[in-house]
Specification:
Radius of gyration: 23 Å
Helix content: 40-55%
Family: Belongs to the TCF/LEF family.
Strand content: under 5%
Strand order of the largest sheet: 1-2
Number of strands: 2
Main location: nucleus
GO molecular function: DNA-binding transcription factor activity, RNA polymerase II-specific; RNA polymerase II cis-regulatory region sequence-specific DNA binding
Oligomer: single chain
Keywords: Activator, DNA-binding, Nucleus, Repressor, Transcription, Transcription regulation, Wnt signaling pathway
Pfam family, one: HMG_box
Length: 478
DNA sequence: CTGCCTTTGAAGTAA
DNA sequence: TTACTTCAAAGGCAG
């Protein structure tokens, strides 16, 4: 079972490390996996059916499934979720007493050690980190500082981040606490921007260049109103148990540092321009059409001046952005429709656990593989996701749960249906037809095999390749 | 320029 | 309840 806030002190980290190394075989697999990202990539790109993979099998789904359960329960995740929910209920009922998974806030700490060189390349030390098992990535939560941060999550994280940033600014080479932490833990590499996983990791030291410190570092003053931000009381619930009417008055704990510090969980983009670092300017521009109930005065910003990153105006939204401006050939009906859409801000869905994981790990995989194609990256990430220990996955599930909770509190009336462009059944973009192998039909693999042949496995659908791979590996083993 | 690809999970809808 | 659909992120790629 996941450690639900168990122990405390250094035991937390110790436990985590214990978990990491509990299954040595698993650990080896992960080392193998992480050190062979390129192989991974090759596997993904060329074919999932690769005999070397069957031997390596460190990152395959089947491996994750085959891996002997470290504990006796049959459905660990189910139980983990149950316990998580119980823990969440306990937490949510009152003050935030720290996450059940002490590790996860830690990975949100900005990597002040700067694994990347100024030119964006990976520093040697960072490269060494790349090969560290993912477990280690996520499990170094043992320092009291981290526990302290956990207690403050997600509010104090900002300040802590600033603190650490200040430390980093003081002496980029000196082993400040942040550095100690960063050196101790192979923080995920994020070449151009911040650690994407969560609000806590929405910082980038790139934004804290000594010559150009962000305004919020100089004083904790709202840049918009000039009013000093109230310090985040350590005992305040990070979830802002708000009534709907008060929602807009509360700064999004994830987003209030977005303009300065980088990519939020719900990045605000403008004009279809994907930028990981929405500036205050772009934010202001993009937030100008918010309805009153969601938009605090002064250009749709929260009273703190910081919008929620989940909100994206339709002009920002990919499918309607620039075409809105020059829709000369659109009908009046469409125009009016778009007008309505314009008035309605696009509130993005909260990220699920896997999405959070992807955001965190994408940069790392990209760095390892020197690959940018998301489809391939996502395949790797999907496999790594399955290779994650349940404890580690649980961190992300818990994080996603908090995201949803926060999202729910910030946008009480929001529904995922709101983002259904054409409504249910009317596809916004045509999804690929379901391939034969995507069903649970056990004979499905043979369909792709029959259709394309063994020598054209690249054309096979993923499940078919996967199943065939398992088949092959079974043959090999036998 | 737009949509697809690719992943998992959450949430919505229809039967 | 089950099955299916859409969307969330990401960036290259094809039409």
């Amino acid at each position: 079972m996941p450690q639900l806030n168990g122990g405390g002190g250094d035991d937390l980290g110790a436990n985590d490390e214990l978990i990491s190394f509990k299954d040595e075989g698993e650990q080896e697999e992960k080392i193998s996996e992480n050190s062979s990202a390129e192989r991974d990539l090759a596997d993904v790109k060329s074919s999932l059916v690769n005999e070397s993979e069957t031997n390596q099998n460190s990152s395959s789904d089947s491996e994750a499934e085959r891996r002997p359960p470290p504990r006796t329960e049959t459905s660990f995740r189910e139980k983990a979720r149950e316990s998580l929910e119980e823990a969440a209920k306990r937490q949510d009922g009152g003050l935030f007493k720290g996450p059940p998974y002490p590790g996860y806030p830690f990975i949100m700490i900005p990597d002040l050690s700067g694994p990347y060189l100024p030119n964006g390349s990976l520093s040697p030390t960072a490269r060494t980190c790349v090969n560290v098992p993912l477990d280690l990535h996520l499990t170094s939560c043992c320092s009291p500082l981290m526990q302290y941060l956990q207690m403050k999550w997600p509010l104090l994280d900002v300040q802590t981040g600033n603190l650490q940033s200040r430390q980093a600014l003081k002496d980029a080479r000196s082993p400040s606490p942040a550095h100690i932490v960063s050196n101790k833990v192979p923080v995920v590499q994020h070449p151009h921007h911040v650690h994407p996983l969560t609000p806590l990791i929405t910082y980038s030291n790139e934004h804290f260049t000594p010559g150009n410190p962000p305004p919020h570092l100089q004083a904790d003053i709202d840049p918009k109103t000039g009013i000093p931000r109230p310090p985040h009381p350590p005992d305040i619930s990070p979830y802002y148990p708000l009534s709907p009417g008060t929602v807009g008055q509360i700064p999004h704990p994830l987003g209030w540092l977005v303009p300065q510090q980088g990519q939020p969980v719900y990045p605000i983009t403008t004009g279809g321009f994907r930028h990981p670092y929405p500036t205050a300017l772009t934010v202001n521009a993009s937030m100008s059409r918010f309805p009153p109930h969601m938009v605090p005065p002064h250009h749709s910003l929260h009273t703190t001046g910081i919008p929620h990153p989940a909100i994206v105006t339709p002009t920002v939204k990919q499918e309607s952005s620039q075409s809105d401006m020059g829709s000369l050939h659109s009908s009046k009906h469409q125009d009016s429709k778009k007008e309505e859409e314009k008035k309605k801000p696009h509130i993005k869905k909260p990220l699920n656990a896997f999405m959070l994981y992807m955001k965190e790990m994408r940069a790392k995989v990209v760095a390892e593989c020197t690959l940018k194609e998301s489809a391939a990256i996502n395949q790797i990430l999907g496999r790594r996701w399955h290779a994650l220990s349940r404890e580690e996955q649980a961190k992300y599930y818990e994080l996603a749960r908090k995201e949803r909770q926060l999202h729910m509190q910030l946008y009480p009336g929001w529904s995922a249906r709101d983002n259904y462009v054409g409504g249910y059944g009317k596809k916004k973009k045509r999804k690929r037809d379901k391939q034969p192998g995507e069903t649970n039909d056990l004979s499905a693999p043979k369909k792709c095999r029959a259709r394309f042949g063994l020598d054209q496995q690249n054309n096979w659908c993923g499940p078919c390749r996967c199943k065939y791979s398992k088949e092959v590996s079974g043959i090999v083993r036998s």
